[in-house]
Amino acid sequence: MDLSGKHIVLGLTGGIACYKAAELCRALIKQGATVQVVMTDAAAQFITPVTMQALSNRTVYDSQWDARERNNMPHINLSREADAILIAPCSADFMAKLLHGRADDLLSLMCLARPIGAVPLLIAPAMNREMWAHPATQRNLAQLRSDGTHVLGVGNGDQACGEMGDGRMLEPDELLEEVIAFFQPKLLVGHKVVVTAGPTFEAIDPVRGITNLSSGKMGFAIARAAHEAGAEVRLIAGPVALIAPRGVTRLDVRSALDMHAAAVDCAQQSTIFVATAAVADWRPATTSDQKLKKDSAGTTPRLEFVENPDILAEVASSERAARGALYCVGFAAESHDLLAHATAKRLRKNVPLLVGNIGPATFGQDDNALLLVDAQGATELPRNTKLELARQLVAEIAKRLPSH
Ligand code: CTP
Questions:
Q1: Is 1 a domain residue?
Q2: Out of 18, 25, 111, 161, which one is annotated catalytic?
Q3: Is 330's C-beta closer than 6 angstroms to any atom of ligand 1?
Q4: Which of 119, 131, 38 is CA-nearest to residue 84?
Q5: Residue 364 belongs to a domain with what CATH number?
Q6: Which ligand 1 atom is at minimum distance from the Cα of 280?
Q7: Ligand 1: does its nearest atom lie under 6 Å from the Cβ of 281?
Q8: Atom number in ligand 1 closest to CA 332
Q9: Which CATH number fits the domain that encloses residue 37?
Q10: 378: CA distance to ligand 1 center in Å?
């Protein structure tokens, strides 16, 4: 569970998005966090403290005069216990209050009283699009950011008022991903990471082609972990049915040649290149622009193949990689003799780090086991979820970067 041991004070302010806070509360708890809900009077107009108490399994705080606290200082006690305060939804009015350091209700008082260096404040704004776009709100946002508040951004789409635009609160699953990312160590700040992921599809004709069983899950997990670690991430994805991690720029490609062009281009501005894609080794020498049809004589088509470029080997032999500005990581999906094949592949591809895994055992699964091979030898990362392994791999990459 990604939030085990974390205690989060979840603050609700007045807005229709309060209904999403119920789901968010559950999601945080499911990931192992304990959640203490604090509500403003306006929030209680939208959702009852009873609902939030039942979901969080703790009585809700809504007044600074709460007699349950022996010292009568809930603003001090609640903020000292927290690993983070998350205001979701955060109304335009509450942002303005935070900005001015006003403290006329328990939630704003608690935010002001929190130890600023030890208890981070995250806000998930939620409001009508005109309120969001208003210069006052945008000015407040900029100032809150520079005061150290972590602003989680807003969604775009239909609004409760019937209008459409920016200002919706992010969905509970998106907020959860943001909160989890917030707590991850920032090992790759300032880095630009490119990840290739998934299979490629080599067309035979407009409706047929050759592909493989790679699901793209490991590559998507690495993209997410690199983003969580503070890097700017581009994910070059072959045809897969996965949703890109939040904050990651996705480039969809189909064939090995498309992936090659995108990867070579992106690698020129990057500092880390991770090749997890199962790139087709060969493509049909010719592609028919019309669907191949059966004939009455039962003739079967004869396919000729040509070899695809080796994307990783090419990027790893670029001038950028040679002068140490680009750190390249390869993957090897093998069926047997993992250490021997991974060691040989590392040398053949000329990469500092090669990650071996048993392909048939991991394709499509949510877990994996990795064997890291570098010039010093081999390191095992035992079976775990792909996301957890991706985080461990990011930490291993960070350790090996030239500046470290
Ligand atoms: N790779 C690549 N471009 C290719 C083939 C492979 O970038 N045309 C990358 C993969 O993304 C992976 C690494 O090279 O990081 C190894 O891929 P793999 O398919 O295991 O190796 P191959 O070079 O195809 O060798 P073989 O099929 O003989 O095992």
A1: no
A2: 161
A3: yes
A4: 119
A5: 3.40.50.10300
A6: 8
A7: yes
A8: 20
A9: 3.40.50.1950
A10: 19
The residue to mutate among 202, 310, 315, having the most atoms of ligand 1 within 8 angstroms of its beta carbon, is 310
Domain identity same for 22 and 133? yes
pLDDT digits (tens, 9 = 90+) for 73-101: 999 999 999 999 999 999 999 999 999 99
Number of compact structural domains in the chain: 2
Is 161 among the residues known to form the active site? yes
Say if residues 373 and 393 touch (Cβ distance below 8 Å).
no
Q: Which of 281, 329, 348, 372 to mutate to test the pocket of ligand 1 (most atoms within 8 A of CB)?
A: 281
Expressed in percent and rounded to 5, the helix, strand and coil fractions of the chain are 35, 25, 40
State the distance from the centre of ligand 1 to the C-alpha of 81, rounded, in angstroms.
Answer: 50
Give domain status of residue 39, yes or no: yes
Inform me whether the pLDDT recorded for 394 exceeds 90: yes
Q: Are 243 and 370 in a shared domain?
A: yes
Whole-number Å distance, alpha carbon 213 to ligand 1 midpoint, is: 14
Q: What confidence score (pLDDT) does residue 386 get?
A: 96
Q: Flag whether pLDDT at 215 surpasses 60.
A: yes
Dist. CA 278 → ligand 1 center (Å): 7
Tell me what the mean pLDDT of segment 188-207 comes to. Answer: 97
Using pLDDT thresholds of 50, 70 and 90, give the confidence band for residue 358. Answer: confident
C-alpha span between 69 and 75 (Å, rounded): 10
How far is the centre of ligand 1, averaged over its atoms, from the C-alpha of 353 (Å)?
14
Cβ(263) – ligand 1 distance below 6 Å: no
**Which residues touch 226 (CB under 8 Å, ≥6 apart)?**
188, 191, 193, 195, 233, 272, 274, 394
Can you give the pLDDT at residue 322? 95
Measured CA to CA, the distance from residue 390 to residue 346 in angstroms comes to: 19
Query: pTM of the full predicted structure?
Result: 0.94
CA distance 69 to 304: 78
Q: Is any atom of ligand 1 closer than 6 Å to the C-beta of 9?
A: no
The tokens describing 376, both together, are 């010093």
100-149 pLDDT tens trace? 999 999 999 999 999 999 999 999 999 999 999 999 999 999 999 999 99
